[in-house]
Specification:
By secondary structure, the protein is an alpha/beta fold. The strands form 4 sheets. An 8-stranded parallel β-barrel has the order 1-2-3-4-5-6-7-8, surrounded by 8 helices. Strand 7, helix 9 and strand 8 form a beta-alpha-beta unit. The structure holds zinc ion (ZN). The site of zinc ion has 5 residues, from loops. Zinc ion binds next to loops.
């Protein structure tokens, strides 16, 4: 069995444009549990209060998965992880220190001897709190092999149960990386009694290849992220590792506990949360991956799928027609049942609110698909109580003339009405918003996607506003894109206001 260690919420989340709020992390964690990952690295609790709270919420909410938090070799970091994960059914502390000479010299300013002493001290300290301890030699792939073996030996002696040997900077190539893993397994006493883990970055496009090469020589855990998100070129993509092992079971002979039919749903959820679409040719989950355009291929596939298709799309949960789920006559029971099926937990008060929004959408849209429900739920928890609320708006636009938008907002006490102008109705709406909230916000990013197909599809707007060096994300959802743009703007402004309270 190969253990899948998912670090979407830690290594993935810390990359630009991928930050998630607590609610989004919880939804993602629940979906990762349904996907069947063995370990979730939920965050870096010492990094910020927000990170600590998310790790804690995930540790308290999940039942089956090992919940892990990351710590540097300091008592403060390790204590923060322990406090955040202590309520989890299964918990792991992940301690790391760099072992390459470059990192020792320029970053840690420590000698090799001092690093070995740190490993002994902090691995055994972590072990005094929790039994399941992972130790990582940061920048392992650029570490002197003899010293790497010494470091691993000391970590195992002090109680590490998983040893991770990352290619932190994405520098390794497959044969070389596999050789490093094999050297450690063959030379360190008791290395066969612990899990040997790999963690690869994709700077040279080799993250998945390096991970698989390591599995080929005996690595038993792979660290990865959904859609391969992560810093710089990203991490090894979970779905690619899993489907490579499954499709080439004849070669590797290794299984994972992943329920592959949940892959597509997990990928979509992350794309929706981070407002990023994967490339159409992204292996496994890209939208062109199972489309056969060329005539020769189409002919072959029609005769027998196996001619050109190495994977069955149903295996990753890609269903031909989108599930038609609910409509305007669906009641609260049907909606609740659907939410449960999709994995959302809502209390009665939330249910009342969600139902009102659901009815609003159902009034303007005939068919409501699973993805509409996901969009609705993800937006639901971005609402900030207090702050501005959209009361009404109207927009005037015609070819070749300046557009005008009038917006009415309530700030809880009074209604404010202003007019804005611009090159198009959305531009005019943002000009109007600036007239209401002041010009301290700069629009940094703006995107509209349609959630499903069809001319009445919901438009999902994502935008980022920058104010005083900080970035605030807002989402809006409506089948009117001007409205969803205004709501997204209002949500981002409210986020900022909440932070200042
Ligand atoms: Zn990493």
């Amino acid at each position: 069995m190969i253990k899948i260690f998912d670090t979407t919420l830690r290594d993935g989340e810390q990359s630009p444009g991928c930050s998630m709020n607590l609610y989004e992390k919880l939804q993602m964690a629940r979906q990762l549990e349904r996907l069947g990952v063995d370990i979730i690295e939920a965050g870096f609790p010492a990094a910020s209060q927000g990170d600590f709270e998310s790790v804690q919420a995930i540790a308290r909410s999940l039942k089956k998965t090992v919940i892990c938090g990351l710590a540097r070799c300091t008592k403060n970091d390790i204590d923060a992880v322990y406090d955040a994960i202590k309520d989890a059914n299964f918990k792991r502390i992940h301690v790391f220190i760099a072992t390459s000479d470059i990192h020792l010299k320029y970053k840690l300013k420590k000698t090799r001897k001092e690093v070995l002493a740190d490993i002994a001290e902090y691995v055994s300290y972590a072990k005094s709190l929790v039994d399941d301890i992972e130790f990582s030699c940061e920048d392992a792939s650029r570490t002197d092999l003899d010293f790497l073996c010494e470091a691993v030996d000391i970590a195992i002696q002090n109680g590490a149960t998983t040893i991770n040997l990352p290619d932190t900077v994405g520098y390794a190539v497959p044969e070389e990386y596999a050789n490093m893993i094999k050297t450690v397994i063959d030379n360190v006493p008791n290395a066969d009694k612990v899990d040997i883990s790999v963690h690869c970055h994709n700077d040279l496009g080799l993250a998945v290849a390096n991970s698989l090469a390591a599995v080929g020589v005996g690595a038993t855990q792979v660290e990865c992220t959904i859609n391969g998100i992560g810093e710089r070129a990203g991490n090894a993509a979970c779905e690619e590792i899993v489907m490579a092992l499954k499709t080439r079971h004849d070669y590797y002979g290794k299984d994972t506990a992943i329920k592959t039919t949940e892959i597509m749903r997990t990928s979509n959820l992350l794309q929706q949360i981070t407002a990023t679409r994967v490339s159409p040719t992204k292996p496994i989950v890209g939208k062109n991956v199972f489309a056969h355009e060329s005539g020769i291929h189409q002919h072959g596939v029609l005769q027998d799928k196996s001619t050109y298709e190495i994977m069955d799309p149903a295996m990753i949960g890609l269903v031909e027609t989108e599930n038609l789920v609910l409509g305007k006559h669906s009641g609260k029971h049907a909606l609740r049942a659907k939410l449960e099926e999709l994995g959302y937990e809502v209390d009665d008060a939330q249910m009342e609110e969600v139902f009102v929004d659901f009815k609003n959408i159902a009034d303007s849209k005939k068919q409501i698909y699973d993805r509409d429900i996901h969009a609705l739920m993800l937006r639901e928890y971005q609402k900030v109580s207090g702050g501005y609320e959209l009361v009404d708006y109207s927009s005037f636009t015609s070819n070749g003339k300046e557009s005008k938008t009038i917006i009415k907002l309530s700030d809880g006490k009074e209604t404010i009405e202003r007019v804005g102008s611009g090159a198009g109705p959305v531009d005019a709406a943002f000009d109007c918003m600036a007239n209401i909230v002041g010009d301290k916000f700069q629009l940094e990013d703006f995107a509209i996607h349609s959630v499903t197909r069809g001319k009445d599809a919901l438009g999902e707007t994502f935008l980022s506003l920058r104010s005083n060096g900080q970035v605030f994300n807002g989402k809006g959802l409506s089948n009117d894109i001007i409205k969803s743009s205004i709501i997204a703007y209002v949500n981002a402004v409210n986020q900022q206001a909440q932070l200042q309270d």
